[in-house]
Automatic annotation (TrEMBL):
Keywords attached to this entry: Hydrolase, Metal-binding, Zinc
Entry GO MF terms: deaminase activity; hydrolase activity, acting on carbon-nitrogen (but not peptide) bonds, in cyclic amidines; metal ion binding
Listed InterPro entries: A_deaminase_dom (IPR001365), Ado/ade_deaminase (IPR006330), Metal_Hydrolase (IPR032466)
Class of this enzyme: hydrolase
Residue ranges of coiled coil: none
One Pfam family named in its UniProt record: A_deaminase
Protein name, as recorded: Adenosine deaminase
The gene coding this protein: add
Cofactor(s) named in the record: Zn(2+)
KW Ribosomal protein (keyword) present: no
Enzyme Commission (EC) number: 3.5.4.4
Family: Belongs to the metallo-dependent hydrolases superfamily. Adenosine and AMP deaminases family.
Domain of life: Bacteria
Lineage: Bacteria, Bacillati, Actinomycetota, Actinomycetes, Pseudonocardiales
């Protein structure tokens, strides 16, 4: 299908689900690993590719946390943010909400000021590159209520420029969403949006809990909603967007292939789907690539890809003026004749 990649590349895009540490390019991970070989992250490109071949979600998370431990100071944070911004700019991605996990960095010994300083200078560099960045501070769920409390305190005390949302990541198995209700309640009272991961590695009950207990305004992944017709109906009726990350789900073994991904069922039920990368170099993903992969697997038309890009604008926490600007940029893109790639 000629033309899909060029079209998906040119489409002005928004990324709503990408983890800062998981966005580190392979050369950056190698450079950090060489500085700190004892962390167990390979210092050789071939070995790193092997390291990023995941048996399952738990295996992925172990690798992810090992890479996290390489990040030591404001310069490293700046390098990650500026690198992500350059990757996004090169793909015509105009705006991204980036998940940062302060508790993990604080636990690894990074002073809070170092983290904040790196985020601020990185965000300024992103603006120079034409990419606006916003932050989601998320709780690493596996570290329990203490992580919830400290993430909340850090978020509300520091409230850096660009902080828009509060999240919950890590494993879901044995890490019920409801345990984090007090922290989400306070974060929401303080004006942060609620965007927990749910239904990535467990069933629809976790998504219901994210909605009821955490007041989720968007769902990170939400993959398992497809097995619950009432939930599909609820998500569609209430226009709760899903941050779908198809390649991530394949690479952590949650779905066998993009073609088998429930994104088709989500769309058929009128759920607001957005496409995202999660941890792009770790999964060999790019934002453009997610649009291409889903278009090819589902036989989407150019207009349907435009709708997905518009969904991400609508589902973002940008203000209405900036949403309107982005929508008009998307509208100006030339559709391939006769309107699809077939
Ligand atoms: N942290 C980084 N990537 C994640 C994912 N896909 N799910 C949960 N936590 C994560
Ligand atoms: Zn994620």
């Amino acid at each position: 299908m000629p033309g899909i990649r060029a079209f998906a590349h040119a489409l002005p895009k928004v990324e709503l689900h990408v983890h800062l540490v998981g966005s580190a390019s392979l050369p950056t991970v190698l450079e950090l690993a060489r500085r700190r070989p004892s962390a167990g992250v390979p210092t050789d490109a071939r070995e790193l590719a092997e390291f990023f071949t995941f048996r399952d979600f738990a295996h992925f998370l172990t690798g992810y946390l090992a890479v996290t431990s390489l990040v030591r100071d404001r310069h490293d944070i700046h390098t990650l943010v500026a690198g992500l911004a350059a990757d996004l700019a090169a793909q015509n991605c105009r705006y991204a909400e980036v998940t940062v996990t302060p508790y993990n960095h604080l636990l690894d010994g990074m002073p809070g000021d170092e983290l904040l300083s790196g985020l601020e200078t990185g965000r300024a560099r992103a603006a120079e590159l034409g990419v606006e960045l916003a932050w989601c501070f998320d709780i690493p769920g596996e570290k329990g209520a203490k992580a919830g409390q400290e993430t909340l305190v850090f978020a509300l005390r520091e409230r850096p420029e660009g902080l828009v949302s509060f999240g919950l990541g890590g494993p879901e198995l044995g890490v019920g969403r409801a345990r984090f209700e007090p922290f989400f309640t306070r974060a929401r009272e303080a004006g942060l949006h609620s965007v927990p991961h749910a239904g990535e590695t467990t069933g629809p009950a976790t998504i219901w809990s994210a909605l009821h207990d955490l007041g989720a305004e968007r769902i990170g992944h939400g993959t398992s909603c497809a097995g619950d017709p009432a939930l599909l109906e609820h998500l569609a009726a209430h226009r709760i967007p899903l941050e779908v990350c198809p390649t991530s789900n394949v690479r952590t073994g949650q779905v066998p292939s993009i073609a088998a991904h429930p994104v088709r069922r989500m769309l058929d039920h009128g759920v607001v789907v957005t496409l995202n990368t999660d941890d792009p170099p770790m999964f060999g993903a790019t934002l453009t690539g997610e649009y291409v992969a889903v278009a090819e697997a589902l036989g989407l038309s150019a207009l349907e890809l435009v709708r997905l890009a518009e969904n991400a604008v609508d589902a973002s926490f940008l203000d209405e003026r900036r949403k309107a600007l982005l929508r008009s940029e998307i509208t100006q893109i030339t559709l391939p004749d006769p309107g699809n790639f077939a």
